[in-house]
Amino acid sequence: MVDTSASRPQHWRTVLIALLTAGLFALFLRNVDLREAWAATARSRPGWILAAVGASLLTYLARSRRWQVLLAPVSAVSFRTSFRATVIGFAANLLLPARAGEFLRAYVVARHEPVSAASVFATVVVERMIDLVTVLLLFACAILFSGIDVGAAIEAAGWAAAGAAAVGLAVLFLAAGHPERVGTVVDRLTERLPARIGGLVSRLARTLTAGLAVMRSPWHFALAMLWSLPVWLAIAAGIAFTSWAFELPISFVGSFLVVGYLTVGVTVPTPGAAGGFHYFYQLALTQFFDAPESAAAAAAIVLHLVSFVPVTLLGLVFMGQDGLTLGQARRVGADRPAASSTPS
User: What is the pLDDT of residues 75-101, one digit of tens each?
Assistant: First the structure.
């Protein structure tokens, strides 16, 4: 008899994700007139949509340069490697579960450069913290300068989240500045574990801490923060351009509010951010800019395609050139970066 108990958690997870996706699309479409949405799409301006595609691609160029800066204190990585790994990782995040692309990025860099995957992955953690801080700063700018009344609750939540992100960066900074203390704390926490597991956890913690070397370099850290501005301004531009293609009443600064909402939407664990992306874009446009729901829904669909289809196609091309299949990418995401080895 075949034991199927191990597959049950995965089965239930698939069912829950499917229900979550369906529920978000139900919310997204509940007040949408499909004929009006199609008419809005037919009237959309292709020039602005092409501009949005360009802004989306520019985002990944800026991300790749910023990642080079973050990696510099760990290892000198070429822009070509950084760009290809970034695009492959984001494509994999859309096609595979559990944010597998984040681990795949580290794996791809470690295949081409003399650096461990775990150290590279640590810079991805720092990158995500910098992203969070940048998004919240832009959100705060929108609250202050867009002239939109967002309400006291949203304003308070935005400032609270900004404070939490700042605390998180401070913790990372302290951990990177005192790796020996991190090692001591980890040793104490793992001393009751079996020797093999405890040793593995200890080595992984030290390797990850070594990857946070950028936080000990004020120049590199400041430069990485500076490169975050073109990353997120390009994302905001893609949102604004797509919205303008549908003649929706949004300013460029106002798009920073939408960036904040979409950041929440893409964290919902649905395939390709489907449902969450669409619903939160529509919610922001209707809540802050009084956009018609059907037109906002049509723009959400186009923006999702603009944001994800080009990078996914390019990522698949790069994966093919590197001899990577989706099955291999899934296994890399499941295994996570090794603590003490560089993939060959």
Answer: 889 999 999 999 999 999 888 876 888
b/e per residue, 273-285, with b = 16+ CB within 10 A? bbbbbbbbbbbbb
Distances (CA, A) of 269 to 17, 98, 277: 7, 8, 11
| Both structure tokens of 322 | 């590197």
pLDDT tops 70 at residue 5: no
User: Rounded to an integer, what distance in angstroms lies between the CA atom of residue 63 and that of residue 47?
Assistant: 25
pTM of the model: 0.85
State the Rg of the chain over Cα: 21
Residue that has been written with the tokens 């798009």 in this structure? 255
- 147 φ/ψ sector (left φ>0, alpha ψ -120 to 50, else beta): left
Question: Alpha-carbon torsion 344, 126, 263, 235, what sign?
Answer: negative
If phi > 0 it is left, if psi is from -120 to 50 it is alpha, else beta; for residue 151 that is: left
Q: Are the beta carbons of 260 and 253 closer than 8 angstroms?
A: no
Residue 182 has pLDDT above 90, yes or no: no
Separation of alpha carbons 64 and 62, rounded Å: 5
CB 118 within 8 A of CB 342: no
**3 state SS of 167:** helix
Please, what is the angle between helix 34-43 and helix 293-321, to 10°?
Answer: 70
Cβ atoms of 116 and 336 closer than 8 Å: no
What pLDDT digit, counting tens, does each position of 114-148 carry? 888 888 888 888 898 889 888 988 888 888 777 78
Cα distances from 59 to residues 77, 227, 277, 306, in angstroms, run 19, 11, 18, 12
Residue with tokens 């829904």: 297
Q: Which two tokens stand for residue 307?
A: 């944001």
